[in-house]
Amino acid sequence: MIDLRSDTVTKPTQEMREASFHAEVGDDVYVEDPTVQLLEEKAAEMLGKEAALFVTSGVQGNQIAVLAHTRPGNEIILEEESHLFYYEGAAISAFAGVQPRTVKGNRGAMHPADVEAAIRPEDVHLPETGLIVLENTHNRAGGAVIPLETMSATYDLAQRNHIPVHLDGARLFNAVSTSGISAKEYASYTDTVQICLSKGLGAPIGSIIAGSKEFITQARKWRKRLGGGLRQVGVIAAPAMIALTEMSKRLHEDHGNAKKLEQGIKEAGFELAYPVETNIVIMDVANTPFDGAQMVEKLGESGVKAVQFGPTLVRFVTHFDINEQDINRTIEILKSIKSML
Ligand SMILES: Cc1ncc(COP(=O)(O)O)c(CN[C@H](C(=O)O)[C@H](C)O)c1O
């Protein structure tokens, strides 16, 4: 099977597995695991933040950020198809007791004027705006890179209004790879940032959240409250360090495979929902007899795994475990499906 469902399916490399085996460990509840401390220090340095904390997933990192930034009754501003709004099970309401205020973005990028217009004025009837959330790259916008100037303008208005900004940077290094802008520069327009190590970077488990020392102290407490107190976490922090420092350098290969798949989809006579920017390819089958689910099923019967991403949308995500032969084979399969329509 050629698994293009997501970059979450990447399996740890042999080097990662050996690093796990040899990792120095300690009890991280007592802040005594030397391996995760090295990872957190490296991540904080790369993101230009005072401190960082290893968390078990992107959702846990995002939710801890919401819990640490806001209080019950707040409202948070986020893009209407952001992961934090669309795919986290309304955790912001269930755990943090906050309500979402969604803003429609252009390929995932909310216009700063629309964000400013969504900020609540002081009024006894209204919630207080407690947080602004950005997502870069933007998953449902097809892995789109949010322009740096949009992030900068949003951060300026947020600071003027004394509202923190959190970046869901699950695929931030994909943005770095394609734009040439450093993770540190992107993160400089945020108060806190979450990066996934378990997606394109290939770690078996884990994300990092980074911010001020004070924020990370609060975040560690929230992680504990959520049952996320980690013991000998070095066994998963060691492969995560390889993901952060080594695998971030090869993401251009995934982007190249995604561009090749994009070209092949067009040659096969299918349409794209968006131009490819990073490692996500979204095909639109509206002008075919199939809907998204039927196309995913057809692809599955031919040995290609993809996911339905909307009534007529199919998402493919390239990653470390996908090579050029897999892409060529996928294109052949798409051409044969098209020939039967
Ligand atoms: C932008 C963004 N932020 C956060 C997360 C959550 O990360 P995890 O909790 O899965 O580690 C994801 C995962 N995205 C997954 C995927 O794309 O296959 C699914 C949809 O949850 C994400 O895309």
Automatic annotation (TrEMBL):
Native species? Alkalibacillus silvisoli
**Keywords, comma-separated and alphabetical:** Pyridoxal phosphate
Q: Write down what this protein is called.
A: Low-specificity L-threonine aldolase
Cofactor(s), by name: pyridoxal 5'-phosphate
Aromatic amino acid beta-eliminating lyase/threonine aldolase domain: residues covered: 3-287
- A Pfam cross-reference name: Beta_elim_lyase
- Say yes or no: keyword Repeat present: no
At the top level, the lineage of the source is Bacteria
UniProt family annotation: Belongs to the threonine aldolase family.
